Amino acid sequence: MPKITQLLFDCDNTLVLSEELAFEACADLSNEILAKYNIDQRYTGPELLSDFVGQNFRGMVVSLQKKFNFEIPKDEMEKYVSMEEDKVIAKLERDAKPCVGCSEELEKLSKSKKYGMAVVSSSALRRVQASVNKVDQAKYFPPDHIFSAATSLETPTTKPDPAIYLHACKVIGKEPGECVAVEDSKSGTLSAVRAGIPTIGYVGSYGGDEKQKEIYGMLKELGCKNVMYNWSEFDKMLAEIEAM
């Protein structure tokens, strides 16, 4: 196995506790869309989070269109994507917090100077930047090493498409096997694994022991090399991958 020289971190609920805030902010907008197209279904923030965790808003709306068999014109889609981004960023700038133990681990990694570090997210670039700025993590990532499937690619996409991980590797100048990704969701894990990147799962952002055990099993099944409940386990799990 090649030497690991680069760490690629998902953002939402991996670095920053942002998913719940984001889905709260976009529930009203999603319901507005469903009402406009005469779809008799409404979502709360937690329901959206349960159904679409790991997807960005564009991907979620595409999924809603497929699920309920309707179509939004392209210009209208762009309007909704922009509106959602503004709503979510305002909420994140007010309320976002780091995942427990994450900032301490990033500080140790930064001081070690052993690995390059980057953020690879499905979310819009402005949203990712707002999240890491709010929790004082931006200092750990070069500005050109924050990647967004919604913004950084020529054709916007979302995880589980591996395109954003492959793009990040290309820009940074690393082969997938030289990297380790950290992901908390099904879509994110599939994105990294399909890109050929060894992946560590993280379940610490999920509430309750039973939910964490359920997600733990799912992430292992999807191809995570190992899964951590707490960021304090990261060193050990990274060492296990490096020893493979």
Automatic annotation (TrEMBL):
InterPro entries: CbbY-like (IPR044999), HAD-like_sf (IPR036412), HAD-SF_hydro_IA (IPR006439), HAD_2 (IPR041492), HAD_sf (IPR023214), PGP-like_dom2 (IPR023198). The lineage of its organism: Eukaryota, Fungi, Dikarya, Ascomycota, Pezizomycotina. GO terms for molecular function: phosphatase activity. Transmembrane segments: none annotated. Pfam families: HAD_2 (PF13419). This is Uncharacterized protein. It comes from Lepraria neglecta.
